[in-house]
Amino acid sequence: MPQWDDRNTSNTYNPQTTHANGNGHANNMTAEDTETQIQAAFENARAELDRYMETAAGFIRERPVVCIAGAVAIGYLVGKLASRK
Predict the structure, then answer these.
(1) Which of 17, 24, 40, 45 is the one with CA 20 to 30 A from 56?
(2) Domain spans of the chain?
(3) What is the DSSP letter of 10?
(4) Rounded to whole angstroms, what are the CA distances from 59 to 37, 45, 56, 78?
(5) Can you tell me the mean pLDDT for 4-27?
(6) Are 19 and 27 in contact (CB under 8 A)?
(7) Nearby residues of 29 by Cβ (< 8 Å), 6 or more positions away
(8) How far is Cα 66 from Cα 69, in angstroms, rounded to an integer?
(9) For 32-74, what is each residue's pLDDT tens digit?
(10) How far apart are CA 42 and CA 48, in angstroms?
(11) Which pLDDT belongs to residue 84?
């Protein structure tokens, strides 16, 4: 679908913006390329989640009483909010 070049005040048609990736170059990605990118993003997300989990586990090991008190407080607040009528 043709796009209009917003930078051009005369609103003339700009064929450089008609490609799917918007930079004037044809998008030649294959399904395998897309799958590879999705797998890489998934692995990066998994690694980041693992880092967060290790950080949380370390905090819990160092301060178990604080974590239990926080869990009790959150449970109390959720219970109060859920019991409102």
Answers:
(1) 40
(2) 15-83
(3) T
(4) 33, 21, 5, 23
(5) 53
(6) yes
(7) none
(8) 5
(9) 889 999 999 999 999 999 999 999 999 999 999 999 999 999 9
(10) 10
(11) 83
Rounded mean pLDDT, 16-22:
51
Q: pTM of the predicted model, to two decimals?
A: 0.49
Residue 50: Cβ within 10 Å count: 10
CA angle 10, 16, 20 (to 5 degrees): 120
Name the β-bridge partners of 4: 13
User: What is the secondary structure of 12-77 as a DSSP string?
Assistant: -B-GGG-STTSSSS-----HHHHHHHHHHHHHHHHHHHHHHHHHHHHHHHH-HHHHHHHHHHHHHH
Which structure tokens are listed for 57? 């586990």
Token pair of 72, please? 């009790």
